[in-house]
Amino acid sequence: MEIPSKYNALSVEKKWYDYWMDNEFFHSKPDDREPYTIVIPPPNVTGILHMGHMLNNTIQDVLIRRARLLGKNACWVPGTDHASIATEAKVVAKLKEDGIDKNDLTRDEFLKHAWDWTHEYGGVILEQLKKLGCSCDWRRTKFTMDEDMSEAVISVFIDLYNKGLIYRGYRMVNWDPEAKTTLSDEEVEYVEKQGLLYYLQYKIEGSDETLTIATTRPETIFGDTAICINPNDERFEHLKGKKAIVPICGRVIPIIEDEYVDIEFGTGCLKVTPAHDENDKVLGDKHDLEVIDIFNEDASLNSFGLHYEGKDRFAVRIAIAKELEEIGQLVKTENYINKVGTSERTKAVIEPRLSDQWFLKMTDLAKPALEAVLQTGEVKLFPKKFENTYRHWMENIRDWNISRQLYWGQQIPAYYYGDGKNDFVVANNLDEAYSQINEKGISISKEDIRQDKDALDTWFSSWLWPMSVFDGIRNPENEEIKYYYPTNDLVTGPDILFFWVARMIVAGYEYKNERPFENVYLTGLVRDKQRRKMSKSLGNSPDALKLIEQYGADGVRVGLLLSSAAGNDLLFDEELCDQGKKFANKIWNAFRLIKGWDVDEAIAQPTSSKIALEWFESKFQKTLLEIEDHFSKYRLSDALMATYKLIWDDFCGWTLEMIKPAYQQPIDKKTLDGVISIFEDLLKILHPFMPFLTEEIWQYIEEREPEEALIISRWPEKTDVNEGIIAEFDFAAEVISGIRNIRKQKNIPFKEKIECLFINNEQSKDTFNAVIIKLGNLSQFDGVDKAVDGALTFRAKSNEYFIPMAGSIDVEAELKKLTEELSYTEGFLKSVQKKLSNERFVNNAPEQVVASERKKEADAKAKIETIKTSLSSLSN
């Protein structure tokens, strides 16, 4: 086959992805091999490929491809998450464009639109992952709203309810006024914002007295039902037992006492609004206060807001401050920075709100998951630093608010038959609910039974993911769950360590009495060069597909991985992808060079080629051990860098040079076979990182049957490492560099042979002499007993090397140049020694700085000795 002169990533990528798919290399079935399983962190069905997805899925693909090469039965399960809040928002926006109001639709009508939207857009991100080279078992693709997945979710809800772990409670919750739903505590981000502290004046009933209260939310005065003072605060002793009048609305409220009030904050008085603050609710319950909810579900004010009814809370904040000022009850305002709860999804400011919701008790459920990570080590986090975060969350876990006021999602399986708070049953369907109600002796028609309108939190679906994708909830003893579970590795971001990872561990121990995975690799966030998180709003996130088009999928994968150590943020720079593309071209050109050599079976293998291949085999084996150690510690960036250096420096930079035949001369067959065997091993260890390029070259080396494809070949076997030959080469490389430097300095063409003599103070072996002669283009390379007159010199460790230059150089000019260089180096040495003789510097400077200066001193001394030897040789 004729090899193209340039590597065309786009045509190659489609060709080999189709080939892998056609031959079902990604598909896994249970067999007698060791399973290796990864479940994809299901991206939102609303999503498109961004840099975070690119990094996360590249890492997973590296792990899964390596597992295949190791002979394991690799299974990577893909899928998407229905993303209740995000998807419902997208569907509502689409309906609005079409002139349809969600509120005018029944639940079933809305769900039809949601499914239409999902079928049109839902698979986009999975198709994009294919462009990246992700080798998922696409036949196993799951969606959290698939019928079997939903059945599993409902089954778990019923089970936990029957165990007494799920309950319905009237509690203060986080309300997202934009999505018009509750959120769990973990879905609220606390963002530092600049605001104002408003000092409001309340009149004391029946007197001319007033008291001043500081608040960041003056609009909530309409919900005030008490003023609270600290009983130990002498300033307010005279107010005990009295009542205050709320500004504007004129409501008379009691002044209560509680040590909860911080005497030092603000004015030392606290307005109590039980409907709109969790701590105020606790105070309200303790002192039996009235609860007044002043907000509509979109956070506009309701009728309690009087003339502000229907207006947005933030607009009211501005207007009410102005009105209070006009009536003389706004004392002052101060700039104030505080942390404001915002919705992780919509970024709307959260309103605390009292509401009937469904909760899951987490304290006892969390215990096995806490032990698995922090005590037994059954589940390991990489990097380990995240264990502290995990501990904090799990030891302070709160009951999980699992209900959402949305249509899109699994509908809560609670069925109401009366008006009482507990007039409901929990059942799989209406028929089961009807039977349960009848068993209670209650006579009711099916038409009068009402199912709870709320949907379950999306995370309540995805926390079952490692089990439900193998049908392990509905059919806990099926062949697949027994074979593939527990899975091996999970790759995800630390931002969902609690949302998803911890909850999956909880579910795993509850339903399988076993961990869901062994290792959790936590990637960093992808940031731009200014360390900003990449986002659409900032416009700093490149188009992932355009990057692939420009640099090739392999180039982008390398670019991402070269700087993405586990748990550390990646500072993305497009130049990294260009570096990956150049690496692909380097390998392609190396392959073309090898395939371009003519072979002559009659030629004996040169000594230089024989030793070169022996050296590289040991170098390869040493690097292989290093790579496997990196993989075991999930240092994928380091594993790739070790592979990169082995190929770029050791193979392309040295090995090919050592074995390359003379210009227009053939190569011997033994060397060619050896270098191709080496090249195939390099393709194997590079394949997880650069799958397309490696498969293309693998198939060009020789025609192969599908069962011989690189993707399912075997990882190189480990053999002994000859450390001696590696050390000897390192020394020889230093000698070759010395010879080449002199050639460069003196403009001696490489085609012109030169002599090199040496004093072997190191007792170095002659193993690589043939290589030194070839790469230095030497006519002679012999040891001598004493310095050679009239020669240029250099050192390798304590060995002295002499290149006789008689007739080749202008001696006078060379003497002048060396003299000037000696003078400069001696001056430099004095300046370094002056610094090192300063005790203050040596005692106070960082250790590495002092070490650097000592190295400069040693290098300068060695250079001076070499220059003096050269001057002496030229002078004689």
Percent range of helical residues:
40-55%
Share in β-strands: 15-25%
Overall residue-averaged pLDDT value: 92
| The CATH top-level class label of the domain at 181-351 | Alpha Beta
CATH homologous superfamily heading of the domain at 181-351: Valyl/Leucyl/Isoleucyl-tRNA synthetase, editing domain
Characterization of the model:
The structure is a single chain. By secondary structure, the chain is an alpha/beta fold. Among the domains are: 181-351, Valyl/Leucyl/Isoleucyl-tRNA synthetase, editing domain (Isoleucyl-tRNA Synthetase, domain 2); 750-875, no CATH class. β28, α23 (769-776) and β29 (778-783) form a beta-alpha-beta unit. The chain is globular. The model has no long low-confidence stretch (mean pLDDT 92).
Features of the shown structure:
single chain, 876 residues, alpha/beta, Isoleucyl-tRNA Synthetase, domain 2, seven-stranded mixed β-sheet, four-stranded antiparallel β-sheet, 26 helices, 44% helix
Topology:
Layout: H1 9-22, E1 35-39, H2 51-69, E2 73-77, E3 79-80, H3 84-97, H4 107-121, H5 124-132, E4 142-143, H6 147-162, E5 166-176, E6 181-183, E7 188-204, E8 210-215, E9 226-229, E10 243-245, E11 252-257, E12 269-272, H7 278-287, H8 313-326, E13 330-343, E14 351-360, H9 363-374, E15 380-382, H10 386-395, E16 400-401, E17 403-404, E18 414-416, E19 424-426, H11 430-439, E20 450-451, E21 455-456, H12 458-462, H13 465-468, H14 479-484, E22 489-492, H15 497-511, E23 519-522, E24 526-527, H16 544-561, E25 570-571, H17 574-595, E26 599-600, H18 607-632, H19 636-659, E27 667-668, H20 669-686, H21 691-701, H22 723-745, E28 754-759, H23 769-776, E29 778-783, E30 791-796, E31 799-804, H24 811-836, H25 839-844, H26 847-875
Parallel strand pairs: 1-2, 3-4, 9-11, 15-23, 22-23, 24-25, 26-27, 28-29
Antiparallel strand pairs: 5-6, 5-14, 7-8, 7-10, 7-13, 9-12, 10-11, 14-16, 17-21, 18-19, 18-20, 28-31, 30-31
Helix pairs in contact: 1-21, 2-16, 3-4, 9-10, 9-15, 16-17, 17-19, 18-19, 18-20, 18-22, 18-23, 19-20, 20-21, 22-23, 24-26
